[in-house]
Amino acid sequence: MIAPAPPATPSPLGPSLRDIHLPPDPAWWPPAPGWWMLAAAALLALLLGAWLWRRYGRVRRQRQQILLELDQLALRHRRDNDAAALASGLHQLLRRVARRVDTLATTQRGDAWRQTLARMPVDAGTLDVLLALDQQIYRPQASFNAVAAVAAVREWLRWAVKPAAWKRTAVVRADA
Fold first, then answer.
1. Nearest in space to 162 (alpha carbons), one of 130, 121, 103, 104
2. Mean pLDDT across the chain, nearest whole number?
3. What angle do the packed helices 146-160 and 33-80 form, to 10 degrees?
4. Model confidence over 119-159: pLDDT tens digits?
5. Between the N and C ends of the chain, which has fewer C-beta atoms within 10 Å?
6. Which of 124, 131, 123 is nearest to 149 (CA)?
7. What is the pLDDT of residues 148-168, one digit of tens each?
8. For residues 25 and 33, what is the distance between their CA atoms, to the nearest angstrom?
């Protein structure tokens, strides 16, 4: 049998202490939950920014395409001097753009068409010129101020191609 070791005798200066050991430095991976949330927020902001940039580009290209078509109609009128074709082209362009927000715009006549056109913040004179286009396309030998018509359509289209420019209209019920 092995004899037990004699008990350690305390030194007269006190117990023998070992040096203080610090814990190891924290690892850099995986990051703390706060860093994960910050990374997720940054990724979400980046995706939202990319989506808004693409949307803005698409809206800008559509706006340029619409105004280019208006310029082509005016140029064709200067070359051919066909007022009926100009009135018809302007009217069709107005209907196509108005159809983006109001699907019934292609079939509206009279007061309903006036209300659709009045949803843009244009003055009464511009609105009257736009409404006169509806009548000019049915007249043989249409004689009207083409410069004023193109300017009125341009002013209305500049407001209409901005998505936030459309005024909301109340839904009118038949039983009311």
1. 121
2. 84
3. 170
4. 888 899 999 999 888 888 777 665 678 899 999 999 999 88
5. N
6. 131
7. 999 999 999 988 887 665 555
8. 18
Mean pLDDT of the 53-62 span: 92
Q: d(Cα 111, Cα 167) in Å, to the nearest integer? A: 17
Place of tokens 């200066």: 13
Distance CA 67, CA 63 (A): 6
Encoded amino acid at 115, one letter: Q
The phi and psi torsions of 133 (rounded to 5 degrees) equal -60, -35
Collect contacts of 76-85 with beta carbons under 8 A, ≥24 apart: 77/146, 77/150, 83/136, 83/141, 83/142, 83/143, 83/144, 83/146, 84/136, 84/137, 84/139, 84/140, 84/141, 84/142
